[in-house]
Design goal:
Layout (H helix, E strand, L loop, with lengths): L2 H11 L8 H9 L5 H7 L4 E3 L15 E2 L1 H6 L7 E2 L4 E6 L16 E2 L2 E6 L5 E8 L6 E8 L5 H9 L1 H11 L3 E8 L12 H5 L15 E8 L2 H9 L13 H10 L1 H4 L6 E8 L24 E2 L2 E2 L10 H10 L2 E7 L4 H10 L4 E4 L7 H14 L1 E5 L6 E8 L10 E3 L7 E10 L7 E7 L6 E7 L20 E4 L2 E4 L3 E2 L5 E2 L5 H6 L13 E4 L2 E4 L22 E2 L2 E2 L4 E4 L2 E4 L3 E2 L5 E2 L17 E4 L2 E4 L17 H4 L1 H9 L8 H4 L3 E7 L8 E4 L5 E8 L6 E6 L10 H43 L27
Parallel strand pairs: 6-21, 8-9, 8-11, 11-14, 14-15, 36-39
Antiparallel strand pairs: 1-2, 1-3, 4-6, 5-7, 7-19, 9-10, 12-13, 16-18, 16-20, 17-19, 20-21, 22-23, 24-25, 26-27, 28-29, 30-31, 32-33, 34-35, 37-38, 38-39
Helix pairs in contact: 9-11
């Protein structure tokens, strides 16, 4: 057998904690540890050695904290290793019942109470058993939608009371049934608030219609079939305006008004909800100006939900919470068109089922039986809300198996069949006080109470010696460490601080108010005593800030083997350079053809140019990101070549960067630079950068390109002629407009003249009067 395997078996046989992975070892070594309690808190596999003189001189007390195997290997005696183990006890563990009892409550879950004391990070697993007893009482609350569209369903349920009771008796002899109904809030826009419509919200032809209401509790739990049938037969249809109903209001009141409904303490509680429409939820009440959120409390007055019009609808989460809290399992009996909606709702409500109603609900009894069988055959174990630092997981031990996780699920569990779950509890951190939480199957009253606390203190059983010789007679041993008297400090209380303030002594060991001795030593009498490194060397410096083992490596050698590590920095041997002394000193690859190093615009490091910002290797010749010299040096060119421009008065001082310039007749081949001077003339030049950051030579073209002056007389004469011509054209344009207007009026006049008819008859006013008188003398007879 291999030695390491032998050691593992030896430690496991003695009740020790097994060897752990390297990551767990790191967990112990990474945490800042000042005491045994700190060690126990730092990791599930960390242990503490209380053996005196276990640590070496200059070694920190935190070295006492390590894994069991590491402490044994370093020479700590097994009996001196402190490693608290998880504690589990069952304070109440009554055997499971086989059948429902006539008196008292049957036991379906064991154990009933347990106590756990856990080390942070170390899980503990125990077994939870569940067995559904035969004949366990059932309370069924039939909650019916009485909106107008459910008229035929109401007629059916009035005839199915006997079948419903028989089905319930087939499940258990201790069955009870209750009845409630709902429609919606009696405010706009959910219900017509006209007084006549509130009193009779159904169609005019409907003779039997009850006034609008939200939720009404009709019948408390009863085992009397005749009483149930009598109350159901009294029910009448009602109505509202919109399609969604006040379903969640009704479920919430049925869940929280336990005394009014008559739920028994020890029973399977079922709500059978029948409806053919969707449901309103939280926020919909704002449509009617109802802003007060639902407070999940019971408000029943004369069996009516009294705050229906004052509180908003509850949310799905609120309903799910109260159903789980009160161990109620809903069965949604809905029409085919609503099946998808309520299946989505069922996903958000644990321990619920959905069944499809026929057109007139005649299949409701069979639907309830099937849904109950599905609910009762599925056991889902879960727990209360827990603090963030506590975790509970479940591993089902059922015939068909099941997934592990934060819920334990077993399917197809028969009555009287026992199923078990391995429950694993882990406390990730120390807790200030004991907590309690409940574990149990959803929809059942039976719960396991778990009382949980953490083990974060060491019980070292030290001898009661006030002035221990180990502490130089100035202190008491506590888990292998000295607890010094007032006025004494140090690993073994060897330092007397007298009247000095201990905090001021410790402040002397802090650099820039940081960690005491940089966390690498102990502050003894105001002086840092530095720890020893694993490699054998020690930290050093006033505050233990230096060590010679963490310098940069090259080819896996500290300082490349060409220097010495001094306080985290490499000091290179002559002829070597670099952060890890990895380079020989040379500038061969940094020299330009002209012989300069990095063109005077950088330094040579490790035989490579380290250029100034913007310049590029290999020789720092070009600077693509820099502004072009044609622009930056333009004013100096104007000043040097033609003594004009803004620098003309101090040209020699302002333009020292151009060390040499020439005035030439022609410029060398290539595109020249050009700038405009103060006289708007174009100045052409060529400029070249020499070695150095700001050092140039320039050639300036003697001849400038200046623009010709404009002919003032031609401009003035042309302007006068232009204005004159424009004026004449405007006058001609106005004349043409008037002429056209006159022509238009003339044509209009001629057209009207042609339309007039003239007569040549004489004016009767100016005609002569003519009178003819018959002479009676000459008139014939």
């Amino acid at each position: 057998m291999y030695p390491c395997v032998s050691l593992l078996l030896l430690l496991m046989g003695r009740g020790a904690i097994p060897l752990v992975l390297s990551e767990e070892v790191k967990l112990c070594s990474k945490t800042v540890i000042n005491s045994c309690s700190d060690c126990i808190k730092s990791g599930a596999y960390c242990t503490w050695c209380k053996q005196l003189n276990f640590i070496k001189p200059g070694e920190q007390e935190a070295a006492r904290c390590d894994t069991w195997a590491q402490l044994i290997e370093r020479g700590c005696m097994e009996e001196d290793i402190i490693s608290p183990k998880n504690y589990f006890s069952s304070s109440k563990n009554i055997s499971l019942s086989n059948t429902a009892l006539d008196k008292g409550e049957p036991i379906q879950l064991r154990p009933q109470e347990v106590n756990l004391k856990l080390r942070p990070g170390l899980p503990h697993t125990f077994t939870l058993d569940f067995q559904r007893v035969e004949g366990y009482p059932v309370d069924l609350y039939y909650l019916m939608d009485l909106s107008y569209s459910m008229e035929d369903d109401l007629r059916s349920i009035k005839t199915l009371g006997n079948k419903l009771f028989n089905a319930l008796q087939g499940i258990t002899k201790k069955g009870q049934i209750g009845f409630g109904s709902f429609v919606d809030k009696t405010v706009l826009p959910f219900t017509n608030t006209n007084p006549e419509k509130l009193n009779k919200p159904c169609a005019e032809t409907e003779m039997y219609c009850q006034p609008a209401f939200g939720y009404r509790h009709v019948l408390s739990m009863t085992g009397n079939k005749a009483e149930f049938e009598s109350e159901v037969n009294k029910q009448r249809i009602s109505g509202n305006l919109d399609s969604p109903e006040g379903t969640l209001d009704a479920i919430m009141q049925a869940a929280v008004c336990g005394e009014r409904i008559g739920w028994r303490n020890s029973s399977t509680r079922l709500i059978v909800l029948t409806t053919d429409d969707g449901f309103h939820m939280a926020g919909d009440g704002k449509l009617a100006g109802i802003l007060e959120p639902n407070d999940e409390r019971c408000y029943m007055d004369n069996n009516l939900y009294s705050k229906s019009n004052e509180m908003d609808y509850p949310s799905v989460g609120q309903v799910a919470n109260q159903l789980e809290k009160n161990n109620i399992q809903p069965i949604f009996a809905v029409t085919k068109n609503m099946e998808k909606v309520y299946r989505e709702l069922s996903k958000m409500i644990p321990k619920s089922e959905v069944g499809v109603l026929s057109a007139d609900s005649h299949n409701v009894v069979e639907l309830i039986k099937n849904a109950y069988n599905r609910l009762s055959s599925k056991v889902t174990v879960t727990h209360d809300a827990l603090p963030d630092n506590v975790r509970v997981t479940y591993t089902p031990l059922c015939p068909e198996g099941g997934p592990s996780g934060d819920k334990g699920v077993c399917n197809n569990v028969g009555v009287g069949q026992m199923v078990s779950f391995n429950v694993t509890v882990t406390a990730d951190e120390c807790m200030q006080s004991e907590i309690s939480f409940l574990i149990g199957p959803l929809g059942m009253k039976d719960k396991l109470k778990v009382s949980l606390s953490t083990l974060c203190k060491c019980e070292c059983n030290d001898p009661v010696t006030v002035d221990s010789p180990y502490c130089n007679g100035k202190g008491q041993v506590n888990c292998g460490m000295c607890s010094c008297k007032a006025g004494f400090v140090g690993q073994k209380c060897e330092c007397s601080i007298g009247e000095k303030d201990e905090s001021s002594l410790r402040a002397a060991c802090r650099k820039d108010n940081g960690t005491e001795c940089e966390g690498r030593g102990d502050c003894v009498c105001g002086i840092c005593q530095c720890y020893t490194l694993p490699g054998g060397s020690t930290y050093y410096g006033t505050n233990c800030e230096c060590e010679n083992e963490s310098c940069e490596k090259f080819q896996n050698k500290l300082c490349g083997g060409n220097g010495k590590c001094r306080c985290k920095n490499c000091e290179c041997k002559p002829g070597y350079e670099g952060t890890a002394c990895q380079c020989k000193k040379s500038d061969e690859q940094c020299r330009t053809p002209s012989g300069s190093v990095c063109s005077g615009r950088g330094t040579c490091k490790c035989n490579q140019c380290k250029c100034m910002e913007g310049y590029q290797r290999p020789y720092c010749l070009t600077c693509p990101a820099c502004q072009t010299t044609c622009i930056t040096k333009g004013k100096c060119i104007e000043c040097l070549g033609f003594q004009t421009g803004p620098f003309s008065k101090n040209c020699s001082q302002a333009c020292t960067s151009i060390s040499e310039f020439k005035m030439v007749e022609t410029l060398p081949p290539g595109k020249p630079c050009d700038v405009r001077d103060v006289e708007s003339c174009r100045v052409f030049f060529a400029i070249k950068q020499l070695d150095g950051e700001d050092n140039y030579t320039a050639q300036i073209l003697k001849t400038r390109e200046c623009p010709k002056l404009p002919n003032i007389y031609a401009i003035i004469g042309g302007s006068i002629v232009g204005v004159t011509v424009i004026g004449i054209l405007i006058l001609l344009f106005i004349k043409v407009l008037f002429t056209l207007q006159d022509l238009k009026e003339y044509r209009k006049f001629m057209n009207e003249a042609q339309k007039t008819r003239w007569s040549e008859n004489k004016n009767p006013i100016f005609q002569e009067a003519t009178t003819t008188v018959a002479n009676p003398t000459f008139s014939g007879e």
